[in-house]
Amino acid sequence: MTTPVLSIRNLTKHYGSGSSRFDALKGVTLDIADGESIAIVGKSGSGKSTLMHILAMLDAPSSGELIVDGTDASKLKGSRLNALRNRTFGFVFQQFFLTPNTTVLDNVMLPLKIARIPSRERTKRAMAALEKLELAEKSSSKAVDLSGGQKQRVVIARALVNNPRIIFADEPTGNLDSATGAVVEDLLFELNRTQGITLVIVTHDEDLAARASRRIYLKDGLVIDEPAVGARHTREVGA
Amino acid sequence: MRAVDIVATAIGNSFRSRLRTTLTVIAIFIGAFTLTLTNGLGAGVNNYIDSQIASIGAPDVMNVTKPVVATAETEGPQPYEESGSTEVSSGVGPPGSTVQAMTDDDLDTIRAIDGVRTAAPIVSVRPDYIEYGTEGKFQLTVSPLSAGIRVELAAGTMFDTASSNLQIILPTTFIETLGFTGNDDAVGKTVTIAVTNALGEQTTVDAVVVGVQEPTLFGATPSLNEPLTSTLYDAQNVGIPTGTSSQYGSATVTFAADATEAEVAALKADLVTAGYAGTTVTDQIGTFQSVIDGIILVLNAFAVIALLAAGFGIINTLLMSVQERTREIGLMKAMGMSGGRIFALFSTEAVFIGFLGSTIGAGVAMLVGGIISQVLADGLLADLAGLQILTFTPGAIVTVLLLVMGIAFIAAVLPASRAARQSPIDSLRYE
User: Fold this and answer.
1) Subunit contact B336:A116, Cβ cutoff 8 A
2) What sections of B335-393 are H helices per DSSP?
3) What is the pLDDT of residue B71?
4) Which GO terms describe its molecular function (chain A) (predicted)?
5) How many alpha carbons fall within 13 Å on the CB side of residue B91?
6) For residue A223, what are the CA distances in angstroms to A30, A128, A228?
7) B327 contact residues in A (CB cutoff 8 A)
8) Which chain B positions have a beta carbon within 8 Å of A93's beta carbon?
9) Residue B78 contacts A, CB cutoff 8 Å
10) Is A239 a domain residue?
11) Which residue of A212, A216, B34, B375 pairs with B303 in a disulfide if CB–CB is 3.0 to 4.6 A?
12) Distances (CA, A) of A104 to A127, B94, B188
């Protein structure tokens, strides 16, 4: 078996201290292989978003270790950390996080701008990403003027424009109706299948999770057995 | 992000909330406008004073007197000096000030001092009247300062120093009174000047008008060239006992034109040791200029206070901007933008707002100042020829721009470092 692209060992995360202490993660161990699609499933408060934030190095764990591509993440600082974030990760958020009054093209180019890629080159690459998502004709529209589905497609274009190895998707279909959501889901899994981009999806949506090659179930900060969830699914259907 | 992208993004961001940027720019505009005008006022007035100084004496000229030895009331009278003890009116300082008269021996002593190039007595000529044609006789007072005069001419030329002809330069105020049709008409004409000698006899001397001068802050008196002054002085001294005629109130000393301040100070010290007192024109006008500089400093302080207030406007604007863009900052950090570059992004935005405000402020100030200056020069200040009350120098304008952008940068430090320190996840969670 190849080295996992992301690997966590006994990860804990708590907020606050004393009586107000809240343990979001209570010791999670997980390996994510290159090219895999994995769904982190759980209700709100289960710690699934915290886990994703730590995996994406947006947040630091309280204890335990995170190994990215064989490197201990706690030893990454400053420019190496920034370069890793810029080149390795792409993000798709439920709330889109688009800059409303700038153009679609500018929004998509942001990671390339941060990567200090020259203007001509980044326009070319951003346009290519937009074409892939059939949004080329919207490139000069303001982000605020787009529909929800278009916005999420712009976000996906932004996530893949810098050819990341891993795309983190936090409730990618949460703000979309089911038809538009299905289109976005198809796009994400197609990227995983055709380009081998590792996909980490955080969701409470069982149907979306079912499409991933592997599912991790979280409850109260701990990984629980997958079959138990299968039982829950059955029970829900039965009810 | 590359530097050029940071600048472009910062400029774009500052235009994203137009109203807020506009209000901040207006605040900076007021400060920069005021500062440019007060600086212009200072430069204008000081330039004028400098040109006036040039008109009453060159920088390489010193007025030397022999002061009466100071006597404190408790000390009793000073011993009588056998030679040169005559006191004469000093001609400078408050009325009634007296100095000891200088003789030719004193002049020789002064000439021997190191650094003195020439020493000539200042003679006082008291003509009775000046006359041209048939318009009548008019009173004539001439300035005792003769050396190193540089005047602003309205017509004609300066004295021909090589010539021994008797020459005079008249102020513009004399022209029509004497009966000339205009400034150019007077040049080359001959006027008659009369003096009365010690015996009560009036003699006349003819002189050629070579130039017409603009009146200065220090009055409008005709200037005589050296041959004319001595001719009149000789005519006036006919009948005076020889001992008295070679006594002078003061002398003019010239020194090297490129002398440094230290060298001038050393020369003054040498003169004091020898029993004389030297005063340059700069000394006499310096006090006046200090007062002007003081006033300008106070005005500038007010402008800087306005700019400081504008600085708080920038802080406020940027804090709101940082708050508004919290999630955007978080996103950029998640995508690998460093804190330093976030800081650069926000401080560049502030500097750009400062640049906008100060450029517009300085530009409008120059435009308005130019108009005011012209209107005043033609109206209220028309009597002070050559005075441009507001003068804008490129150096001063650049200083104002840099100062404002500096203040803007300092104002940006707090909001920009707050943005730079934000953790990406807290920013993304922010609602």
Assistant:
1) no
2) 339-378
3) 46
4) ATP binding; ATP hydrolysis activity; transmembrane transporter activity
5) 21
6) 9, 39, 11
7) 95, 97
8) 428
9) no
10) no
11) B34
12) 10, 81, 81
Q: Residue A109: which CATH number?
A: 3.40.50.300
Q: Among candidates A180, A181, A154, A156, which has minimal Cα distance to A168?
A: A156
A216 lies in some domain: yes
Interface check B332 vs A, CB under 8 A: yes
Q: For chain B, say whether A17 makes contact (Cβ under 8 Å).
A: no
Backbone angles phi and psi of B95, in degrees to 5: -60, 140
In chain A, which residues have their Cβ closer than 8 Å to the Cβ of B330? 97
Structural element, H or E, at residue B118: strand B116-122
Q: Cβ contacts (< 8 Å) between B2 and chain A: which residues? A: 113, 116
Asked whether residue A237 is domain-assigned, the answer is: no
Distance between CA atoms of B248 and B254, rounded to whole angstroms? 17
Euclidean distance between the first and the last CA atom of chain A, given in angstroms as a whole number = 41
- At B288, the amino acid letter reads F
CB contact under 8 A, A58 and B424: yes
- How far apart, in Å, are the Cα atoms of B267 and each of B107, B117, B251? 15, 11, 15
List chain A residues with CB under 8 Å of B5: 113, 116
Residue A131 belongs to some domain of the structure: yes
B337 touches chain A (CB under 8 A): yes
Q: How far is the CA of B299 from the CAs of A229, B174, B285, B288, B402, in angstroms?
A: 78, 39, 22, 17, 19
Total count of domains within chain A: 1
What is the predicted ipTM?
A: 0.84
Give contacts of A 26-85 with B, CB under 8 A.
53, 56, 58-59, 78-79, 81-85
What's the mean pLDDT when you consider all of chain A? 85
Q: Give first-to-last CA distance, chain B, whole Å.
A: 26
The residue ranking higher by pLDDT, B29 or B69, is: B29
Cβ distance B336 to A78 less than 8 Å, yes or no, reads no
Closest C-alpha to A170, from A64, A26, A75, A58:
A58
| Strand residues in B132-222 grouped as ranges (E) | 137-139, 153-156, 167-171, 190-196, 202-213
Mutate to test the interface with A, among B331, B333, B422, B426 (most CBs of A within 10 A): B331
**What is the C-alpha separation between B47 and B54, in angstroms, rounded?**
11
Each residue of B373-418: pLDDT tens digit? 888 888 777 777 667 778 888 998 999 899 999 999 998 999 999 8
**pLDDT at residue B86 above 70?**
no
Q: Do B336 and A86 touch (CB under 8 A)?
A: yes
Check CB contact of A163 with chain B, cutoff 8 Å: no
Q: Is residue B339 pLDDT above 70, yes or no?
A: yes
